[in-house]
Write a structure and sequence with these properties.
3-stranded antiparallel β-sheet, about 65% helix, NB-ARC domain-containing protein, transmembrane, transmembrane helix
Length: about 750
């Protein structure tokens, strides 16, 4: 008989009765429901009469108000108690568990605590296997025993050959501190945010597995009331003022104590000389000592002396690999197959479910445990597994079995990206993408993609596009789209390649580079010979390219008509986007008429654009697309400004700023700041310092090129005569993508104004 509690049995039976009752509801029909509901109401009324019959009138009057209030309060209290606590918004990792009984590192731990009182950043450095992470984790627990004051970021990326970039590290650190990672353009932009997040909190921020000092060189040298610990194996030189705490080999006594812990005191005490020789053979590396101890613990019939004799017959460069090779020979078939597959992956680590997908099995827990017990893999970042460096085989020959395993892995990631991408911006989806986004980029960037993976790679790229757009990480958006385009071209998958080329086109237009955007559009268009067969996105990008490259309004209008025809009737978000682009076209035509002295016609176009934008805004609300709502409000502000309705323009600009801030769209918010500064400059009573402050806030958030960037520098040049030349050059550089190609009139006029400064 199974061991199930009475509570669980009762819950199961009640849920079964509920399901059966629900299944018969259709049979009951509307009339039956009304009859049943009326019967319940009659019974309630009769019950109230019986309860109230013996109560005096004054008591009923007193209870009439407090009882409902008490019931409401009690219901709210119960629901609040049952509600699950909200998860973290940016998906930071929990701090590793306390490490007990760290052997032979007391002096180094004391050094960390002493340095923490003297300086803000403490560096713990050591070779692989020396326990650098363990010392840093234990020191953090000693400095901040309260888990609420601990922050942890593992900077060891999924690429074995290339460390994480400083920008990627800065973004990961910001997420760890519950700050939006897309709000920075350069690593140094994260420095003030780290200071603001840590100052006076008593927190300890641990950055683990750092590969190079350049990854963390942007960190503030000191944060009042907080500590930063940096731990890793550095391949470059540290600044002279850092004075790292260096972890060397364990001493002989500490090494023997550590090995004895793995074997047990009784077995270790049988042959102390052999125990000492084993420690010497491990060269004082805690990792190797633990690995040897685990292997001996699994092989109780092998004496310490026999292992020493085997090691003495080997050359020095093979001694440390001897136990590993012996462990591999003892593996069961499933674990051995998993080790071989993990060793040949182009990514350094995967989670346990991905490991099961590699094998084509429901779970790989037993195989992972077997490998971990022998020290052949490491369990890192909670449920992630990384193969030991000794068994990496990046040049492994591709076999049908490896290709099939890779296809299963790509399909697994595609399913996960679909599932979590559809749930963004929920907290669990954010957490998954925060952990896996670099791994997914590595999957897309595999040099030789495996056949029949094009569709799955496209789904992975779709998930990454949704995630990176949410975080406003435009460089990563471009990197993912470029990797997908290369993979699709290698696989001869034109449909996926067209999607990737169009995505690059859209991103480059956002970044203000119409020349490069046009090249990617042309590559996408070349894959579709007939215009009628173009997907809807291709028509939209065609319209955007034409609008960015000149004032061919008829061609733009034709492309938008084709885009609308290609959309399905139920695509509310797509139609909202179409109307927003139609309004942008009307505004641009109105500007042209204004410059040509055709004021009444321009005014009519502005009014038409406003009406179209209100319709687009209504559709964007229906689709719950906050990004589309923000863009519509931004254009509505322009329309009202052109119509001379300054108050309405300011109101829509406020709404656009708030929506852009809510979606972490720093570029959109910066455009609004430039627009607000331009509106203030039209007021004769404007305060120059106020306008300069707006432009200085916007400028670092804008892309390097584009009309908004050039306009910001134009305004700053007028407000700062002493630095007019500097801003003129920066503004002209922002317009350089249009050099040598057709350009809209607004670009030509802005270029002329900048040149005349």
């Amino acid at each position: 008989m199974t061991d199930i509690s009475r509570k669980d049995r009762l819950r199961f039976r009640l849920s079964r009765v509920y399901r059966r009752a629900g299944a018969h509801l259709p049979e009951l029909g509307l009339g039956g429901l009304v009859t049943a509901g009326g019967t319940v109401l009659l019974l309630q009324e009769e019950l109230i009469k019986q309860l109230a019959g013996n109560l005096p009138v004054w008591l009923l009057a007193v209870l009439a108000l407090p009882v409902p209030v008490a019931v409401v309060w009690l219901t709210h209290f119960v629901r609040r108690r049952r509600a699950t606590p909200p998860q973290l918004l940016f998906g930071r990792l929990p701090f590793p568990d306390m490490i007990h009984g760290l052997v032979g590192r007391d002096a180094e731990l004391q050094q960390v605590k002493d340095r923490a009182r003297e300086r803000g950043v403490i560096v713990v450095q050591g070779a692989m296997g020396m326990g650098t992470s363990a010392v840093a984790i234990k020191a953090t627990w000693d400095l901040a025993g309260d888990a609420r004051k601990q922050r942890y970021a593992d900077l060891r990326g999924p690429d074995r050959d290339h460390p994480e970039t400083p920008l990627s590290v800065a973004q990961r650190v910001l997420r760890t501190l519950d700050r939006p990672p897309g709000a920075i353009q350069e690593p140094d932009d994260a420095t003030p945010q780290v200071i603001d997040a840590l100052t006076g909190t008593g927190r300890v921020l641990l950055l683990d597995n750092v590969s190079t000092w350049s990854q963390v060189a942007w960190l503030p040298p000191r944060v009042p009331g907080a500590h930063i610990i940096v731990a890793g194996t550095f391949t470059d030189d540290l600044p002279p003022h850092m004075e790292p705490i260096q972890l060397g080999a364990l001493g002989p006594d500490a090494g023997r104590d550590l090995l004895a812990r793995q074997l047990g005191d009784e077995r270790a005490g049988r042959d102390p000389k052999a125990l000492k020789r084993l420690v010497d053979a491990c060269l004082g590396s805690p990792l190797e000592i633990v690995r040897v101890g685990h292997w001996l613990a699994r092989n109780p019939n092998i004496s310490l002396q026999s292992l020493v004799d085997d090691l003495q017959r080997l050359p020095i460069d093979q001694k440390l690999d001897f136990v590993l090779n012996q462990s591999v020979q003892q593996l069961r078939p499933t674990a051995k197959q998993l080790l071989s597959l993990l060793a040949g992956l182009p990514i350094a680590e995967v989670d346990h479910r991905a490991a099961a997908a590699l094998l084509g099995l429901p779970t790989a827990e037993d195989a992972i445990k077997e490998l971990a017990d022998l020290g052949l893999v490491e369990n890192v970042r909670m449920t992630r597994v990384r193969v030991t460096s000794t068994f990496r085989s990046t040049g492994a020959r591709e076999t049908p079995q490896r290709a099939a395993a890779w296809r299963r892995l790509v399909e697994h990631f595609a399913d996960q990206a679909d599932s979590f991408g559809a749930r963004l911006p929920d907290e669990d989806a954010r957490t998954w993408f925060a952990i896996e986004d670099r791994v997914l980029l590595q999957v897309l960037a595999r040099p030789r993609p495996v056949p029949k993976t094009g569709h799955a790679l496209g789904r992975i790229a779709d998930g990454l596009e949704t995630w990176f757009r949410l975080e406003q990480r435009h460089e990563d958006r471009l990197r993912a789209a470029a990797a997908l385009a290369r993979a699709a071209k290698a696989l001869d998958d034109e449909q996926v390649q067209a999607t990737a080329e169009l995505r690059q086109c859209a991103i480059l237009l956002t970044a203000g580079d119409p020349r490069q955007a046009r090249q990617h559009f042309n590559q996408a268009a070349a894959l579709r010979v007939k215009v009628e067969s173009w997907p809807a996105e291709l028509h939209l990008e065609h319209a955007a390219i034409l609008l960015a490259s000149g004032d061919e309004f008829t061609a733009v209008e034709s492309a938008l008509v084709r885009y609308g025809q290609a959309l399905s009737g139920g695509d509310v978000a797509g139609h909202a986007l179409r109307l927003t682009n139609v309004a942008a076209l009307l505004l641009r035509k109105g500007q042209t008429f204004d410059h040509d002295g055709r004021g009444p016609e321009a005014h009519s176009l502005y009014a038409d654009a406003r009406a179209v934008l209100f319709e687009a805004l209504d559709m964007a609300h229906g689709a719950d697309d906050r990004g589309a709502q923000a863009h519509a409000h931004e254009l509505l502000a322009l329309a009202h400004l052109y119509l001379g309705l300054a108050f309405d323009a300011s109101s829509h600009l406020d709404l656009a700023e708030r929506l852009y801030a809510g979606t972490a769209d720093e570029i959109g918010r910066a455009r609004c700041l430039v627009q607000r500064a331009g509106a203030l400059l039209e007021d004769p009573k404007h305060l120059p310092d106020e306008v300069i402050a707006l432009l200085e806030e916007a400028e670092p958030r804008l892309p390097p090129a584009g009309v908004s960037t050039a306009l910001a520098h134009f305004h700053l040049a007028r407000l700062r005569p002493g630095r007019a030349g500097e801003h003129r050059e920066a503004g002209l550089a922002a317009l350089s993508p249009w050099d040598g190609i057709a350009e809209p009139r607004q670009v030509s006029e802005l270029r002329a104004r900048l040149s005349a400064l």
